[in-house]
Specification:
- This protein is α+β, with helices and mostly antiparallel strands.
- It has a domain at 59-110: Beta Barrel (OB fold (Dihydrolipoamide Acetyltransferase, E2P)).
- Helices cover 18% and strands 29% of the residues.
- The chain has three helices and six strands; from the N terminus they run αααββββββ.
- It has helices spanning 6-10, 30-38, 41-47; strands at 56-60, 63-64, 70-73, 79-82, 90-98, 102-110.
- The protein has a six-stranded mixed β-sheet, with no helix packed on it.
- The protein is elongated and about 70 Å long.
């Protein structure tokens, strides 16, 4: 149960003795706010995909998606979808398309685990 300040009741948005649903959200303290406002770059950097079109990487296929394509993850858990691969297979891929939260790649070479 949360007590609503009387001033809110006078504004007409809330009525006494009524039931309301509320969400309790964290808010940064004053010191956290200053830290975030002083350096907004790390937030922007985390939103930039960690791969670029044309880039090649050797990866292990971690999972198979609903459509049968291989899925691997690179930095920060960024998902790369690789068609025509099997789970646990090691492949060298070339990134063909990069989107905000996922990239697509093609197999360039199938790599032995002993290499």
């Amino acid at each position: 149960m949360i007590e609503v300040p009387e001033q809110e009741l006078h504004l007409g948005d809330l009525e006494a003795d009524e039931t309301y649903r509320v969400a309790v959200l964290p808010s940064p303290t004053t010191s956290e706010t200053n830290t975030i406002d002083d350096d907004p770059q790390p937030e922007q950097a985390s939103q930039t995909p960690p791969v670029e079109e044309g880039e090649q990487r050797t990866v292990e296929i971690e999972d198979i998606g609903d459509q049968g394509d291989g899925i691997t993850r690179v930095e920060r858990g960024f998902v790369v979808i690789v068609p025509d691969t099997k789970q646990s297979e090691r492949v060298t891929i070339e990134i063909t398309d990069v989107r905000e939260n996922v990239a697509f790649a093609e197999v360039v070479d199938r790599v032995s685990y002993y290499e």
